[in-house]
Every structure is written in C-alpha cells, then in structure tokens.
Amino acid sequence: MPAEAPPDGTSLSREAVPETTAPGPAVPEPAATELERAVLAAVSDPGLAREYLALLRGTPRALYRDGGPAHLTASAVVVDAPGEHVALVWHLKGRFWVQPDGHLEDGETSLERAARREVAEEIGLEDLALVGDGPAMLHRHGLDAAFGRCREHWDVQFLLRAPRPAAQMPLRASEESGAVEWFPWPSRTPLAGTAQELLPVGVVPDLPATLEALAAHYSAIRS
C-alpha cells in the first residue's frame, strides 16, 4: 500500500533529505597530497606525517604564518651533484646555520614549490632535482620569543640535488641571510671527521641527525 502523502503536499522523499550545512574551508592541494606522500617517502615517523595531515585538514589556514601559533613551513636540504656537500644559510634572526626555509606566501598551496622558492631567494639556486618521491623529512620544533607570534613550526623538508659539484655552484646570499656556504655532508664526504668537526659552529642542533638520516636515504635512492 503506497505511503500517504503529508498534508502539506510535500513528498516523503523530499522531506527525508536533511538540510545541508555550508562546507568548511577546502583542504589545500597539492599540499595535502604532498603530506600523504610523506607517510611512505619521508625518513621520519609515518605517524608524524599523519599528524601533519590532521593539522592541515582540521585547520587549512595552518599552511600559512597566520594560521595559528603552530603552522607549517617548507624547507630544502640542498646537496651538490656528487652528494658530498650541503648548502647552509646563516639565519640572522635565530643566529644559527640551517637549511633554506620559510613560510608559504598567501596563495601558495604547494610545499615543494615554496621550498624551491626559498632556495632561490636565500642561496640563489634553481632547477634542482627532487631526490625521492616527496618530502624527505618532517621536523616539528618549538620557537623562542625572537620569532614573535610563531610558537611552533611543523617543517616539511625536501631533499634537492644541484646539477654540478659545489665548487661549480657558487651561492648567493640574500638580505635575510647573513652568509651562505657549502659544507661537507657528514657520512657522505670523503673528508675525515665527525659532524661536529665538519659542520660549522652554530649549526641548528637537530640538523646533524637530520643529515645523517638523509645520507642513508640518499644512498638508498641513488644506488
């Protein structure tokens, strides 16, 4: 027996359709896909990549500096063609040596492209090859008062390779970088010495361990 129509004349099928709510902000692409690749491609813990994805999906504006005290940044560990040197920048605000890095600019939605832009701006290199299938390392770290509203950076690090040896790839410092220089890549350079001996005084504390992990990652991919 057919269902009786409601007295107001509307159909049962239309009455059963719930009211829709306005959709939330879209998750930025390709940033989300890049982080999905980090689950498998990065040498850092896959669980950390999932936390990054959860942050981005829950707060899409976290892709930018104004997205809250904890937000994403992009950086690149740049190595020369033989994989024996790494390019570092003297960070004027932080007073330490570090890989080229920074915030995404409004409108940017690719973490890799942002990392490449930072490299071009801070050390003057372009047309670098991506090593691997996505981000090579994820690193979350707190910041001191010198960084203003920024309290925690969730950095997405790419491994990029220059087309020639360091001696043939002069670096160019920007106004934001006090100095830029190629240094031996510990675990990869033929030079003898520990990371403490080969890297400059004042290198950011977590970088030696990152470079060691990336050396194994690089060797596995290039072999």
Tell me what you see in this structure:
- This protein is an alpha+beta fold.
- The protein has a single domain, classed as Nucleoside Triphosphate Pyrophosphohydrolase, CATH 3.90.79.
- The protein is built from six helices and eight strands.
- Strands 1, 2, 3, 4, 5, 6, 7 and 8 form an eight-stranded mixed beta sheet that branches.
- The longest helix has 16 residues.
- The chain is globular, with a radius of gyration of 23 Å.
- The termini are far apart.
- The N terminus is likely disordered.
Keywords:
223 residues, Nucleoside Triphosphate Pyrophosphohydrolase, 6 helices, 28% helix, alpha+beta, eight-stranded mixed sheet
The biggest beta sheet reads:
8 strands, mixed
- As a percent range, the share of strand residues is 15-25%
What is the H/E string?
Answer: HHHEEEEHEEEEHH
Q: What is the SS-derived class?
A: alpha+beta
N→C terminal distance: 72 Å
Short description:
With 223 residues, the protein is an alpha+beta fold. The chain is built from six helices and eight strands. 28% of the residues lie in helices and 22% in strands.
